[in-house]
Amino acid sequence: MPDEILFSEFDLIYLTYSSLQREIMFPFRIRRRKFKTRMLSSFLVLSVILTFWMARQEFSYSQQKNQSNKEWNECVAKIQSDPSIELSNTTLISDDDNIYQTYRTKECPSIVQEYFSHPPPTQSELEFPIAFSISVYKSASLLEKLLQAIYMPQNLYCIHIDMKSTPTFCAAVTELIRCLPNVLLAKKSVDVIYPHISILHAQFNCMEDLLYTGKDWKYMINLVGQDFPLYNNRELVLALRALNGKNNIQSFHHPDLKRRTQYAYEFKRRMDGSDHKAYKPVKTYRKKSPPPYNITLFKGANHVGLTKGFVEYIIFNQTARDFIDWLSDTRSPPETFYSSLQQHPGVPGGVIGLQPEFVMRAIDWFDKEKDEANYECHGKWVRQICWISVRDLRWVLGWNKRNMLFVQKIPFDVSEDLLRCLSIARERRVYGSYFFMTRTNFSDTSYLRSDVEKEMMERHESVVT
């Protein structure tokens, strides 16, 4: 039968198998199409959600930026306002019991999140931890603001509480740092007297505790409760790295050194004195021997940035210990100790001769001999030092002080405007930037720089990349 199509057994089996396969696979094809449709739908939904989230984040960032700009513009208006215009004078509540009650009633996770939140540290910050020695005697509220401003988990902090501090203040500080494992209380406490060797002993006690933790850190900065940072931690690290392993200490010749060290001094109790002025240095007729080890005497500020090697030298080296003993009956030994060792041969991190720029403090002194100050003080003069107000931020954040890391002195009855404006400025700055052009005594008209934020964004992008 030539016209008929003949099927072999194999053909019949193949056709039967193919038909069954189509019947079997048909539901799977439907399922596969449904799966693809669901995947596409899910992808579209996720894309919409992600787009919405990104838009919301951008909107939130824009709102925060606008709010920050608004707050900063308000600060600028107050900083540059006419001194004849009275500003609001809302002061920080400095009730130690209030700090004690606030912190003792909260759990540690809540305290860290609510009061000590911080940006994630950069790799540069992690590789360059900083140690801080903080000497305090009153105002737990001001200490809280300082600690919040400088706190980072990779750093190390030691707080020395003056022996004359009240029990309420001690309890408040203990509760304040209870949940911060990298913040220590000095194991030994001294009665700090101005301008006595006890100022140094308070710092030495913290130095010992910082060294004995066994933790790594690169530099130590000594602070008091009336200091406040002018840059965030990332910029502090940048500034300290630029020191290239050298201490940052004022060290210069001064004719007053002979008067301070030629004869021994005794500290007599004042009848009307209080706090650190409870004692008065009185010169005796006992002439002192020359400094040990042929140490040449120099003068400088008590505010220092020290390498870890120099701190170890102070605590463990016999030369340093003997020099401390020699200085113990001189006038203002803190202003002689660091500055003299800085130029003594063989001291770790020391610099002999011309010193690098001193960057530790922005401070306004009144020179009694010249009867003038570097800047007009809009706050108040206390012991020839300007206790600053918000209007003083014009020179604090000005060109002359652009490399300074901290400012002193913050008043104990500090206005909220001052701390708020300092905090806003600190987060907007990159190291070496400034907001105002200033000369001494404000003989020029100040103006606000407009490119600081651009510098900050460029620095941020370089850190990220």
TrEMBL record:
Residues spanning the membrane: 39-55
Signal peptide: none
GO cellular component labels: membrane
Any GO molecular function: acetylglucosaminyltransferase activity
Membrane disposition: Single-pass type II membrane protein
Metabolic or biological pathway, per its Swiss-Prot or TrEMBL entry: Protein modification; protein glycosylation
This protein's UniProt keywords: Glycoprotein, Glycosyltransferase, Membrane, Signal-anchor, Transferase, Transmembrane, Transmembrane helix
Pfam family, one: Branch
Compartment(s) of residence: Membrane
InterPro entries: Glyco_trans_14
Recorded family membership: Belongs to the glycosyltransferase 14 family.
Name the UniProt record assigns to this protein: Beta-1,3-galactosyl-O-glycosyl-glycoprotein beta-1,6-N-acetylglucosaminyltransferase 4
Organism the protein comes from: Stylophora pistillata
Gene: gcnt4
